[in-house]
Specification:
alpha/beta, six-stranded parallel β-sheet, 12 strands
Length: 343
């Protein structure tokens, strides 16, 4: 595969500024890189504070040396996606920008971004959109048990499902087992109608949604029917030994301490486990200790168990979600500061 950027000619611009011209080798892909009415270039300009000028198969980037380097890295990563036959839209552009910012700000830069790991499924590659997601993906590839902890919208469950699907398709596990505790989010749903599957499906809907993003719909239905993919509430895990599986426990903050210990000890030969949750969104009755919080405290430092922690800046849903998470975080800090000492 040709390098995404064929030529970079640098010259001095204003003092303390840098200008670089990037040339791409496939004229059919250039309009996709620029976006309709150059909207992708405009987004990079806005987010990184640089000036982009596209002409033909070239883009000239001008700005501070650091910001120009970020824009150059983001464009190179997007170009590689296009060369691999993948589409790019606003989420991919935002992800490339975040990765570029995080890579240059980190003590151990991870450039070039185009070489970051990807999880490949039948519906295409799933790539990291933040440095924390990239670190999480590496932990999923290397460790048998991984905890993904952080706010909603950071991709904890989505990336775990993607890894499970990739391992199943590669024949490295025999089954995927997806589980959640059946706890209402502050509501009382009462006696739901229907058979057992109809009663528990509402709790497990997010896992179905993630699966359908990774596999064609008929494949999801076929693999569920054959038992290659099992989706079950946490209560169904008791007494089982899960061998040669990829097991995900979602919404783990709503487990009790006893449930969490029960789940973790289901692990059998050849199995990988991922436990995801947001400790700030516990829906257990008042006074009930979250199994996720206790597990993090007890298991931190145990060899073979890895912890990936996400923050507000890693939210990859609608930009408003990130601001909502940040506002609630500030409110919680204010409440904590207002509590009497020892309360």
């Amino acid at each position: 595969m040709n390098a995404p950027v064929l030529r970079a000619d640098s010259r001095a611009a204003r003092p303390a500024e840098r200008s670089v011209t990037l040339e791409f080798d496939d004229n059919a892909l250039v309009p996709l890189l620029f976006g309709d009415h150059d909207r992708h270039l405009a987004r990079i300009e806005q987010r990184l504070g640089v000036r982009l000028a596209g002409r033909g198969n070239r883009v000239t980037v001008s700005g501070s040396a650091e910001r120009t380097g970020m824009a150059e890295a983001a464009l190179a990563a997007l170009w590689k996606r296009l060369e691999q036959g993948e589409r790019i839209g606003v989420p991919e552009v935002e992800g490339a920008i975040r990765m570029a910012e995080g890579s240059l700000e980190a003590e151990d830069p991870r450039l070039p971004l185009a070489d970051l790991p990807a999880i490949r499924t039948r519906k295409g590659s799933v790539t990291a959109r933040t440095p924390a997601q990239a670190a999480y993906m590496e932990l999923l590839a290397r460790h048998e048990m991984v905890f993904g902890i952080g706010p909603a919208g950071t991709g904890k469950t989505y990336l775990a499902v993607a890894q499970g699907v990739a391992l199943l398709l590669a024949g490295r596990v025999d089954r995927i087992v997806l589980s959640r505790p059946a706890v209402e989010a502050g509501e009382r749903l009462g006696f739901l109608p229907g058979d057992l599957k109809e009663k528990i499906d509402p709790y497990l809907r997010p896992l179905y949604d993630a699966l359908h993003d990774m596999l064609p719909g008929e494949q999801v239905a076929k693999r569920i029917a054959s038992g290659e993919i099992e989706i079950a509430p946490l209560a169904f895990m008791r007494g089982r030994t899960l061998a040669h599986c990829f097991v995900i426990l979602d919404e783990a903050q709503n487990t009790t301490a006893a449930q969490m210990k029960m789940f973790l000890t289901r692990m059998g030969e050849g199995t990988r486990m991922v436990i995801t949750g947001d400790p700030t969104q516990v829906d257990l009755p008042p006074g009930q200790v979250s199994g996720l919080k206790e597990a993090v405290r007890i298991l931190d430092g145990v060899p073979g168990i890895a912890f990936a922690r996400f923050a507000e800046a890693d939210v990859v849903r609608h930009p408003l979600v990130q601001r909502i998470v940040a506002a609630y975080g500030r409110a919680e800090l204010e409440r904590a500061a207002a509590r009497p000492a020892g309360a």
